[in-house]
Specification:
The complex is a heterodimer. By secondary structure, chain A is an all-beta fold. Chain A has strands spanning 4-7, 10-13, 19-25, 33-38, 45-49, 53-54, 62-67, 70-75, 85-90, 102-106. Helices cover 0% and strands 50% of the residues of chain B. In chain B, a hairpin with a 4-residue loop joins strand 7 and strand 8. The N and C termini of chain B lie far apart (39 Å). The chains are: A mainly beta, B mainly beta. At the A-B interface, strand 4 and strand 5 of A face strand 5 and strand 10 of B.
């Protein structure tokens, strides 16, 4: 079973800064990775799929990169509404695992 | 508008059963695969089950196999999760989520989510 490991667990930054979140797969998964944002008490929202494609309506400050085993979600110039928990997720192997999440908090 | 609305959650004793529903609106439900994803209190996301757009196939996470059954009624635009032999570790918010594939293709990304329904298994 493929395991996704996200780092760091918590990232403390200020509005206007750039955030870089990492997701590593225990074996190569090509580009079959998505990123989701979840705010407290809310359902997750799809941000990025196939490692680098922004979902409908997602601002351009969100970008994804990577392939194989190492993936990155970058958020340029953080807005106050970007502080949330972010999850990566694999689409190509059952049971469709998620990473454990990275909490992006205001410094 | 395009939305998913879950219902059926509540407090249930260990070993008992519960059925969750997910009502879809604003899109052609029968074109899309559908998933259940859960989140234990204070924890991360865990995929639970998927059903093909026509109900012809499904998959489950190992921890619920033989206890949970996913189904759908395309005439009612509704998906279900029948949960039997519930355990304390099944306590979670259960989300229904639409597969991003559409047009009869399963892609295993989740592009539309409901608000979630809380299931608490406790004596």
């Amino acid at each position: 079973e493929i395991v996704l490991t996200q780092s760091p667990a918590t990232l403390s930054l200020s509005p206007g800064e750039r955030a870089t979140l990492s997701c590593r797969a225990s074996q190569s998964i090509s580009s079959f990775l998505a990123w989701y944002q979840q705010k407290p008490g809310r359902a997750p929202r799809l941000l990025i799929y196939d490692a680098s494609i922004r979902a409908t309506g997602i601002p351009a400050r969100f970008s994804g990169s990577g392939s194989g085993t190492t993936f990155t979600l970058t958020i340029d110039s953080l807005e106050p509404e970007d502080f949330a928990v972010y999850y990566c997720q694999l689409r190509s192997a059952w049971p469709l695992p998620f990473g454990q999440g990275t909490k992006l908090e205001i410094k | 508008q395009v939305q998913l609305v879950e219902s059926g959650g509540g407090v249930v004793q260990p070993g008992r059963s519960l059925r969750l529903s997910c009502a879809a609106s604003g899109f052609t439900f029968s074109d899309y695969g559908m998933h259940w994803v859960r989140q234990a209190p204070g924890k991360g996301l865990e995929w639970v089950a998927v059903i093909w757009n026509d109900g012809s196939n499904n998959y489950y996470v190992d921890s619920v196999k033989g206890r949970f059954t996913i189904s759908r009624d395309n005439s009612k635009n509704t998906m279900y999760l029948q949960m039997n032999s519930l355990r304390a570790e099944d306590t979670a918010v259960y989300y229904c989520a639409r597969d991003s594939g559409g047009q009869l293709l399963l892609r295993n990304y989740f592009d539309l989510w409901g608000q979630g329904t809380l299931v608490t298994v406790s004596s």
